[in-house]
Predict the structure of Methionyl-tRNA formyltransferase.
Amino acid sequence: MATVRTFEVEHLDKATPHDEVASATVRLVNCGREKFIQIDTYGRDTRERPGKLSQTIRLDKAAFEKLVALGRNHF
């Protein structure tokens, strides 16, 4: 698991498509006095153990707001 508090922004000019995952879960986390948005991904259906948690990323409030602003500007 990783908690993200800041981002470095880079532009990727030569990107290739990624495989889609079966699902992702967004969790609203209260951790003491701090709140996080957590995104869990579970990988492809063709994995050896389908449904197994693959990656978890937690964003604090500042990182979430930065990500939302980056998304708005990008799209």
The chain has a mean pLDDT of 88. The beta strands are 2-4, 24-31, 34-41, 55-59.
